[in-house]
Specification:
single chain; Rossmann fold; eleven-stranded mixed β-sheet; five-stranded parallel β-sheet; 24 helices
């Protein structure tokens, strides 16, 4: 059951993301599963609100006295004050929703009732735990200036998705605050709205109050999914993918002309959150961006090049996340056509553990940014870098113009080792971190020795991989320093992913005229191993998971094939799951670099990559496919059962970056059939 729910939520995420501004990013990782929660109250609310005839909104309603609310609302709402707004009365209401009034606060009813009132309103709505209110997406109204919702469960998310009457409502909302809000969404509602395209939605629904919004705070917002209806996952996935492609192709951009503060914090971000922020949205006046407490583990390039996307941004709060490394351009002067604004990065309370003089100097040299890295778990263990840092802290003139901004670096506190936990850098000596001896002579001697060894070994190192391959394939010998491998039994040694246009070459190599040295290996191919009756996607997943490797036959035909690109994505996901070199790429022909997608380029650098015309092509292929036991002579004829090689951290980071950009692969390379 859990697996089914997870799949549904992934598809729901694909569908909702293009239509939301900020609030749906945590759909997959932080949603609360509550199947079959449609109580009598929520059902009553939904049916009565959604069945409300749009004709009622067009009918001439009686003029409402300024400041009045719908009948019986005084039971849970009270007037807190009155002043003026643009020469009109401005009423401030506070509403408390408990279990006796749950479901009675209805945004659609409210905006209809007050629409004829010659007044403006602000509402502060607070709920008892579990209490519900009706609040459609974008909460569009003509005379509500401020809206704060705290600790509520909201329903009727899709209410305005077909309500084109909201296009006639002028932008009015200036401040929107949603705090500790759970948005309840029913699968049946998704199915009703699934085929809606961006061009068919009300224009005001896409961007909301883009002309007037000044403050948007969405803090600790999440989704509750009510699985109240069955769903065809295959069909749902195809339509949802089409929707996200449709939205990304849209030429419409939302321009939030007055927005100055934007907070989307205390939620787990999806890998799409930065793209959603920047791809089709502009913020010409944004000053403050808050993405704290969001489980972010890296600084996106869009934030490093902030002046492209946020021209006036002054402060970005990325505190209380999982960022481990920071790297910014040294000097931004002169690389942009107009003056670059100054920006403060708050990266406190993250997971940065390593400091160095080089890091400090890079931060100091960039005059356009100020980065605060206080309260991180710094590692002060004895090392060359650490002794250089302590020397830098002691000898630097922190009152000088160059270093004055970063005086706080002296007060960074160590986290480990335990004996210096909580101590400030400027208080430490080499003895405190057990660096009693002078490291420089030792370092110099080791450097000279290392240089001599490099000179001696340079020729061997230049061809070390070829030597390792030939020793293994020709003499059955595993050379020392071979990465550790694990033996894992699977049905196939490799799944061959290729375009039908390249089938002749593939069959000739892997079936008809298979070379003797790979004759013992078992290969999976779609034309003979796909199971009839199952979808292509299910067959791809099964074949990739049941194979120790996936061999990509890369050609122009491969790049033009939608299904080949699906197979590439699934194989890449398997590499991340197994944390091993699962992918093997065979380059069938030379392809201009500009025609190769960026993500595939990165894979070609990370995974095994073989040209078909290579002089030792079969040796390279056999080496990549074969199991090589650590510390023993391996048999070339041994069936490959799981070649595991611990990837360097840099390559693992590349893999993670590719995974975070998977939506780009879908956008550029996959057409939904």
């Amino acid at each position: 059951m859990l697996s089914r729910e997870k799949q549904i939520m992934d598809f729901i995420f694909l569908f909702v993301l293009p239509m939301t501004l900020l609030g749906v990013f945590q759909m997959v990782s932080s949603m609360v599963l509550q199947p079959n929660i449609s109580t009598e109250l929520s059902t009553f609310m939904y049916e009565n609100v959604t069945n409300m005839s749009t004709e009622k909104l067009n009918k001439t309603t009686s003029i409402v006295l300024p400041g009045s609310l719908p009948p019986a609302w005084e039971e849970f709402c009270s007037l807190q004050g009155k002043d003026s707004y643009h020469q009109q009365p401005y009423y401030h209401y506070s509403c408390y929703i408990d279990q006796t009034s749950t479901g009675k606060w209805n945004f659609s009813q409210l905006r209809t009732y007050i629409s004829t009132s010659n007044a403006s309103y602000s509402f502060n709505v607070q709920c008892q735990t579990g209490a519900k209110i009706s609040l459609p997406y974008q909460n569009k109204a003509s005379n509500i200036i401020k809206l704060t919702v705290y600790n509520c469960v909201t329903v009727d998310y899709f209410l305005d998705f077909k309500n084109h009457e909201i296009d006639s409502m002028p932008d009015a909302m200036e401040e929107l605050r949603l705090i500790n809000v759970q948005k309840q969404i029913r699968v049946s509602d998704f199915k009703v709205n699934l085929n809606l395209k961006t061009d068919t939605l009300p224009g005001n629904l896409i961007c909301g109050d883009e002309e007037t919004l000044k403050i948007v705070i969405k803090r600790n917002c999440s989704f509750i999914i009510d699985f109240d209806a069955p769903i065809d996952l295959n069909l749902f996935g195809i339509i949802a993918t089409g929707n996200i492609l449709d939205s990304r192709r849209s030429s419409h951009k939302c321009v939030f002309k007055q927005l100055q503060t934007l907070e989307i914090s205390v939620e787990t971000k999806s890998r799409y959150y930065v793209n959603d922020l920047t791809e089709q949205r502009l913020y010409p006046e944004l000053k403050i961006l808050n993405v704290s407490y969001s489980d972010i583990y890296y600084i996106p390039e869009q934030f490093k090049n902030w002046w492209i996307y946020f021209e006036t941004l002054e402060y970005i709060d990325m505190s209380h996340n999982r960022i481990q490394d920071i790297l910014f351009p040294v000097n931004l002067e002169g690389i942009w056509g107009k003056p670059i604004p100054s920006l403060t990065y708050d990266i406190t309370h993250n997971e940065i553990s390593k400091v160095s003089v080089r890091m400090f100097e890079r931060l100091v040299s960039n005059k356009k940014i100020f980065v605060n890295i206080s309260d991180n778990p710094f590692n002060c263990t004895c090392s060359n870098e650490m002794t250089e840092v302590l020397k830098f802290i002691r000898e630097t003139d922190w009152s000088s113009e160059r270093y004055q901004r970063y005086q706080y670096l002296r007060d960074l506190r160590c986290h480990i080792p335990q004996r210096v936990n909580g101590r400030r850098l400027r208080e430490l000596t080499n003895n405190d971190i057990n660096c009693e001896f002078e490291l420089m002579p030792v370092t110099l001697a080791l450097s000279v020795l290392s240089f001599l060894l490099i000179i001696i070994m340079i020729v061997i190192l230049k061809y070390r991989r070829e030597i390792r391959i030939l020793f293994f394939t020709r003499f059955n010998v595993v050379l020392p320093c071979q990465p550790e491998e694990l033996y894992e039994e699977k049905e196939f040694d490799a799944f061959i992913s290729y375009s039908n246009e390249d089938q002749k070459w593939v069959l000739d190599l892997f079936e008809d005229n298979k070379p003797e040295r790979i004759a013992h290996l078992k290969f999976c191919m779609h034309q003979k191993d796909f199971v009839p009756g199952k979808t292509i996607f299910e067959n791809i997943v099964k074949c990739v998971e049941n194979s120790n490797h996936t061999i990509i036959i890369l050609s122009q035909n491969f790049l033009n094939s939608n299904f080949c690109m699906w197979e590439f994505q699934e194989a890449f996901q398997q590499s991340i799951v197994e944390r091993k070199r699962h992918l093997i790429i065979i380059l069938l022909e030379d392809i201009p670099e500009r025609e190769v997608p960026n993500d595939l380029k990165r894979c070609m650098k990370t995974f095994t990559y073989i040209k078909k015309d290579d002089n030792i092509f079969i040796d390279r292929l056999l080496f990549s496919l074969s199991y090589k036991g650590k510390g023993k002579v391996a048999k070339v004829g041994h069936v490959n059962t799981g070649y595991v090689e611990d990837l360097p951290q840099e390559e693992m980071n590349d893999m993670v970056r590719i995974n975070n950009d998977k939506n780009k692969i879908q956008r550029n390379n996959i057409q939904v059939i």
